[in-house]
Amino acid sequence: MQEDLYRTIKLPSEGLFKDKGSKFLAFAYPFENELEVKSLIEPLRKEHFKAVHFCYAYRIGLDRNNFRVNDDGEPSGSAGRPILNVLLSKEITNILVVVVRYWGGTLLGVPGLINAYKSATEEALTNAEIIEKTVNDVYQITFGYVKMNDIMKVVKDFDLKIRNQRFDNQCSIEIEFRKNISPNVIGKLEKIDEIILEYLHTV
Q1: Structural fold of domain 5-132
Q2: Intervals of the chain under pLDDT 70
């Protein structure tokens, strides 16, 4: 896979796995910012207030080391890690999977838990539409109005996406473009005098 391509899910999806009376409801969400995690989990805690565990794992970005797992009271390594392993095996990133467990009265043991959290996650991903997206850089350009034509020519030549713009005596636009054309775009922009080019983040 090209280094600026990644796989994720298009829309939230759900899965369900049952074992010995326990129910494991998996909820998968596409996301791009770790600050979103709490806002995605909290509504589940309110909706499923009788559930006993809310275990999760997420991956973000292309680095396989950029992840987090949470067993939420289950035996260590029996919940969050199996969820994560599914995401890694399917090479999916920018995704959060929360598995909500309703207690069924029978202990499943660690092997049973690993299988349950893994199976619920796989079910949610089976029900999801997996898409390929490009890794994009986001920059802000600040410039005087007289430089407008020069800037917009680069935007047009490279078909750059404009995320935000403000035109006044001092103008600024926020642009987004695929990472693999970044050197070419930056090279062109840096040839324009009296502009401020600022890298914001990667999405």
Answers
A1: Ribosomal Protein S5; domain 2 (3.30.230)
A2: 1-3
